[in-house]
Amino acid sequence: MNTDTQSGSFLRALGPLESYAWLIDPISPKHFTITAEVTGSTSVDAWAAALHAVQSRHPLINARVNTDSSQPLHFVYDSSAKIPLRVVRLDKLTDIEQEIKREFSAPFGTGDIPLLRAALLYSDTRCVIIMTSHHSIADGLSLTHFIRDVLDSLAGKVLVTLPLQPTVEDICIKADTPVASINIPTGTSTPVPYTERSLAKLNIFRRRLSPELSSGIRLRAKKENTTVHGALAAAFALAFTRTSTAINSNTPVRICTPIDARKFFALDYGLSFSELFPTYGYDARLTTKFWDLARAVTDDLQPVRTQQGMATVINQFQDFMNNPELNRLINFDKQSCAPDILISNLGILPFSSQFGELTLESVWGPNVLIGTEGEQTIGVATLHDTIHLIHTSYKPLPDFLNTAEEILTSVLDEKLPA
User: What is the pLDDT of residues 5-32, one digit of tens each?
Assistant: First the structure.
């Protein structure tokens, strides 16, 4: 951030999706966490200094949302912003998940500056950093790259200031953008109520798939003309059908998939909310063939992963996004989204895991929820050729991760059709 910028200076207006995340937050909090495990010798002071250095790199960390009701929502520069850092001795803990739950269960307030915080589980040679962000300023991939920046800074790298990112609507919608032929996401027939949120009810579980299983999924998915994401979605949809007592076997399983808008337009990963999250329903009865289901997921998402497809999805909701009356935003959560499963897949992390003497051992996340009843979120990240899964829910299905892993293992044992 340019140090000549004066506090209160206008940065830019919030886009429709950023406004949605901001306005709905008091009703259904829209924040998320990413957790990283790091080995190597550090100090608390070094972590604090790295956070401060990287804060200068990302403009939206140094911003607050102007809430003057006489003006459209917009970001303004605030010189008082400083990333809060909570420090806990790692050797005093027996349960990292409890610390992730503590961070995820605490929403941001409308007066919080910045809309980002850090928790450091510290020891001399191993640390866990938990970053939590409001969705109006970031998404899972940009927050993961923020953690990369912090590790680069710890390793002594000097980082340049990034430009202010455009809104996802400005990225995707141009005057000459044609309408794409996509499967338009459809909502539920009746609104799904919001879930009751409390730390006591929140559950978070982690699972690291073996390198052999992770590699097997990638290779088999390619042979089956689908993707790792399609295979994971199929496994969790079938696991949902097996473990849920609330669903009728003929009811489609609704899966929400956040899609990164940057990768198709050569943008960097400065903090911003630059993703779309369509929800589609799938037949996941016990008689459903696994790879048919995986291909169905891929077939729905592939046309959306283009500028035209993303513009078409945005245009579907443009009217109410541009006129964000609260009840319409609530209905967007409860009917247009309302996923049974949200799978937020960061993919193969596109940077080295070595930062000088430090090693990034694992990344877990995102932990995020739309917030409707019965929702199961799976955060996915692939590092060291290993798929990392983290399950977040206020009403978790029993053995959800284990059941999905068993399904994946069993389908890899099946022979390819002749």
Answer: 666 799 999 999 999 999 999 999 999 9
pTM of structure: 0.95
Do 119 and 203 sit in the same domain of this protein?
Answer: no
Beta-sheet strand order (sheet of 116-122): 85-89, 116-122, 126-134, 31-39, 358-367, 354-355
Parallel, antiparallel or unpaired: strands 10-13 and 74-77: antiparallel
Q: Are residues 362 and 274 in the same domain?
A: yes
Alpha-carbon distance values, 246 to 27, 284, 288 (Å): 25, 14, 19
3-class SS of residue 82: coil
Tokens of 295: 């291909």
Please state the length of the chain.
Answer: 418
| Residues forming a β-bridge with 343 | 378
* Pair 164, 174 in one domain: no
Amino acid sitting at position 380: V
141 sits in which H/E element: helix 140-154
Domain that holds residue 388: 170-413
User: Confidence class of residue 177 from pLDDT cuts 50, 70 and 90?
Assistant: low
φ and ψ at 68, to 5 degrees?
-65, 115
Token pair 């291909």 is at which residue?
295
User: For 406, what's the count of Cα atoms within 13 Å in the CB-facing half-sphere?
Assistant: 10
Band of pLDDT at residue 3, cut at 50, 70 and 90 = very low
pLDDT in tens, 121-167: 999 999 999 999 999 999 999 999 999 999 999 999 999 999 999 99
Residues of the chain with pLDDT > 90: what percent? 79
Check whether residue 395 and residue 277 sit in a common domain: yes
The domain that holds 393 is classified in CATH as: 3.30.559.30
Domain boundary among 101, 135, 168: 168
